[in-house]
Amino acid sequence: MPMKPISLDRAKEIATEKNLRPGKVRGTTEVEFTRGGSPRVDVIDWPEFEQIVTSKGLEIHEGGGFMKLMKKT
Questions:
Q1: Does pTM surpass 0.70?
Q2: Beta-carbon neighbour count of residue 8 at 10 Å?
Q3: Helices and strands (H, E) in the chain, number of each type
Q4: What are the start-end ranges of the H helices in 1-73?
Q5: Which of 3, 5, 15, 62 has the most crowded Cβ, counting Cβ within 10 A?
Q6: Which residue, among 69, 61, 66, 67, has the nearest Cα to 29 in the 3D structure?
Q7: Assign residue 9 a region: left if phi > 0, alpha if psi is -120 to 50, beta otherwise?
Q8: H or E element, residue 71
Q9: What is the per-residue pLDDT across 26-72, written as a single tens digit (0 to 9) for each?
Q10: CA 71: distance to chain centroid?
Q11: Of 9, 2, 54, 13, nearest in space to 31 by CA
């Protein structure tokens, strides 16, 4: 299934359904969705996640139940 861009609000809904939270890879500005508990990823709040996504020119894509962060086209 092709991936399509979605809004942050839709990403939050999907994250809630899948028990995911926004995360940042420790020591970097890389963001991802996480279930928590990983020693390499710190859970962050949604405003910080949104700020990083915006500042890096990323958008959230969804397809087949999966979400991925990609550069805006």
A1: yes
A2: 16
A3: 2, 6
A4: 8-17, 46-55
A5: 15
A6: 69
A7: alpha
A8: strand 66-71
A9: 999 999 999 988 999 999 999 999 999 999 999 999 998 899 999 99
A10: 12
A11: 54
